[in-house]
Design goal:
This protein has 194 residues and is mostly helical. It has a domain at 3-136: Hypothetical protein af1432 (Orthogonal Bundle). The chain is built from 10 helices and no strands. It has helices at residues 3-13, 16-35, 40-49, 58-67, 84-96, 101-108, 119-130, 139-146, 150-167, 174-188. Helix 3 packs across helix 6 (101-108), helix 3 (40-49) packs across helix 7 (119-130) and helix 8 (139-146) packs antiparallel against helix 9. It is an enzyme of class 3 (hydrolase). Its EC number is 3.6.1.41. Keywords: Hydrolase, Iron, Metal-binding, Nucleotide-binding. It catalyses: P(1),P(4)-bis(5'-adenosyl) tetraphosphate + H2O = 2 ADP + 2 H(+).
Length: 194
């Protein structure tokens, strides 16, 4: 894959701020992959593509979700902010012939997470959350954990996200709950009764 051509395409598709975010996510993903002995090249590609469809029209994304059998129609029942990752996961195959399922899954689930996340899923999910341009409550704790424990940092990010959505009385996509529960079990080793 020609990374420079992809960056040129991204510059045209994204706002300047979103393009800069994408570069920071990519740098963070590479760093996480190197730290935790993950797939560095796959992390770079998935990170570059993670917001590829961020500014596609809602009508276009809706049509793709409705007509592509690889995408669950359930997405349409939730906030459109969740659509761009799944849509990008199918668009990059059509436009760039990216067929690596691990890369496509990491892009698909980068906003919600999911149960049984792969290392690449975790890297992209976390890189998007902790990239240096972000600033919100609870972020420092996640960044600190990300230096030594990828799964714990992902758990903290999932917990914070679910909590934030519940505090705002927003619906929570099922994969986000599944990610939280699965990561909780990985970190704490099972059911905790206190």
């Amino acid at each position: 894959m020609d990374i420079e051509n992809l960056k040129t395409d991204l510059k045209e598709r994204l706002t300047e701020a979103r393009y800069e975010h994408t570069l920071r996510v990519t740098d963070t993903a590479i760093n996480l992959a190197e730290t935790f002995h993950g797939p560095v090249e796959k992390a770079k590609i998935a990170a570059l593509f993670h917001d590829y469809c961020k500014y596609d029209s809602l009508e276009e994304m809706k049509k793709i979700i409705e007509t592509n059998s690889k995408l669950p129609n359930l997405l349409l029942s939730f906030h459109h902010e969740l659509w761009h990752g799944p849509v990008a996961s199918v668009q990059i195959e059509e436009r760039y012939t990216v067929t690596d399922q691990e890369i496509k899954d990491a892009i698909f689930f980068h906003t919600t997470g999911r149960a049984n996340m792969t290392m690449l899923d975790k890297i992209i999910f976390l890189a998007d959350y902790i990239e240096p341009g972000r600033s919100f409550p609870g972020l420092d704790e996640v960044r600190a954990a990300a230096k030594t424990d990828l799964t714990k940092a992902c758990y903290q990010a999932a917990r914070n996200t679910v909590h934030f959505l519940m505090e705002k009385n927003r619906t929570v996509y099922p994969d986000s709950f599944h990610a939280y529960n699965d990561l909780n079990q990985q970190v704490f080793g099972g059911i905790i009764n206190e």
